[in-house]
Amino acid sequence: MLAATATPMKSASVDARPIIPRNKTNLWTQAESIRDELYGHILEASTRAGLEPLLLKSGPSVFPAWVKFEAWQPRGDSTTTKRSSATLTIEPRPYYHHSFELDVELWTENKSRRFRRVAVISQTEVDKLISHLVNGGPTPRFRRFRDYPFQLWRTDNKLKGLGKDVLATVTGLLAIAGFMLIVVLPVALVLWGVAVFLALKIAKRKSIVKIDGKPHDEPRTLIRVDSWQTVLFDLGSEATTVRERFVVMLEAGLDAQRRFRTERHWYWGLDGKEEREQWVLTAGRGIVFCQIHQYGKDLYVGWDGHLNRGQWVEQTVATGIDKSTRNPITISRVVPGTQPMSEYDLADLSCLMEWVHAQVVKLLKQLINERKIDQEIDFKIQRAERQQVITSGSAAAAEGSAASKVRKAFQRTA
User: Fold this and answer.
1) If residue 141 lies in a helix (H) or strand (E), which one and from where to where?
2) What confidence tens digit (pLDDT) does each residue in 366-409 have?
3) Segment (H or E) for 157
4) Which of 96, 327, 381, 368 shows the shortest CA–CA distance to 206?
5) Cα–Cα–Cα angle for 189, 194, 197, rounded to 5 degrees
């Protein structure tokens, strides 16, 4: 009998693709929780102060996250006001002892002050900040991190586990000392020999890179492409029902390529901040925003599709020696950046827009039949010129890297 040949077991391959991992533990994602917490602290402090200010916070996929307070307090009548504001921007610091730092800008009594490298502030500190802005209390004394080594009165926020390359420093000093003692040739040769030995040892060290990861969503830098909208007469009272049916239809058709969520965003109205809910679908670099809103007795239904040229870009924070392995290490993080787009990105968006539009058409035709609505609806999509979209996106991405250009805090992204 022939002996059975054993089949060798195949070991699972290691994913070594040059892709920064997405996770929920990265500091950009955690910064949004810090943003919401600060927003709640400011709201609570304002309520205790008997004030209804303008409170804003950065929207979804806006980085860095920020919170803004602004108050115009009447003095005598509504035409005379005392104005004050504060903007708190949250800066992640991956692998530092303190993971977040704040950049605080204050403006009151026609004077502005900026405090950099501020530790995340508590409710008590927020109360003092609002008291300063609203009631003219003392300037808050923020806990700040050192900018320079001599600032011993501040907390030192250092990178964790990172040391200096002592071996490289010694190698350099030995080489320099050899040149200085070249008149004593035997001593110089010994010093150079030791320097060469250390240099060879340095060359054998294994260098590694450590990075915090990136959020599941890309930062938004949008280019509008196609859109469609209509108004249904006398259906405004049924806005909630129409939304629920629309969401059910969207969820039923989702797959691995299409993602869906609800977002609430603010925008500037004629008299201050307005808030609305919208439904966001994504596929690749394509984003479609869907809106269903009541306008008096009527119902507005529409969507608009965008290409997102935003991308996470790797940025080196520091280099040094890993204290645990004594090998060279590079500490990196991601920052908002941009990327040129291709026809394939546009194809992903086109597919997503056509799918969304088909769901909208199906829903509205059902409503027309059910409610016996005598109204003609134009279902033709308003389309942009395709080549112009790709060209403008590529040109805009080439203007500069967002690793060096942080997006403006109040730029609208949807």
Assistant:
1) none
2) 999 998 888 889 999 998 887 777 666 665 555 544 333 433 43
3) none
4) 327
5) 125
| C-alpha closest to that of 403 among 345, 316, 309 | 316
**What would the two tokens of residue 332 be?**
């990196």
Q: Please report, for residues 34, 122, 232, 279, 377, the alpha-carbon distance to residue 295 in angstroms, rounded to integers and kept in the order given.
A: 35, 41, 10, 18, 17
C-beta separation of 109 from 95 below 8 A = no
Supply angle C-alpha 56, 59, 61, rounded to 5.
155
99-105 — which CB contacts under 8 Å span 24+ positions? 99/27, 99/30, 100/27, 100/30, 100/31, 100/34, 101/145, 101/157, 102/142, 104/142
Sign of CA dihedral 390, 393, 399, 401: negative
Q: What is the pLDDT of residues 27-44, one digit of tens each?
A: 999 999 999 999 999 999
Q: Tell me which residue of 308, 305, 261, 260 sits closest to 285, measured CA to CA.
A: 308
Give the burial class of 38: count Cβ atoms within 10 A of its Cβ; 0-12 exposed, 13-18 middle, 19 or more buried.
buried
User: Does the pLDDT at position 126 exceed 70?
Assistant: yes
The pLDDT tens digits for 59-72 are 888 899 999 999 99
pLDDT bucket at 106, cuts 50 / 70 / 90? very high
C-alpha 44: how far from its chain's center?
26
Residue 61 makes CB contacts below 8 A (sequence gap 6+) with 215, 217, 218, 219, 220, 310, 413
Q: Which residues contact 228 (CB under 8 A, 6 or more apart)?
A: 302, 303, 357, 360, 379, 380, 381, 382
Q: Does residue 140 surpass a pLDDT of 80?
A: yes
pLDDT tens figures, 226-242 = 999 999 999 999 999 99
CA dist 384 and 223 (Å) reads: 11
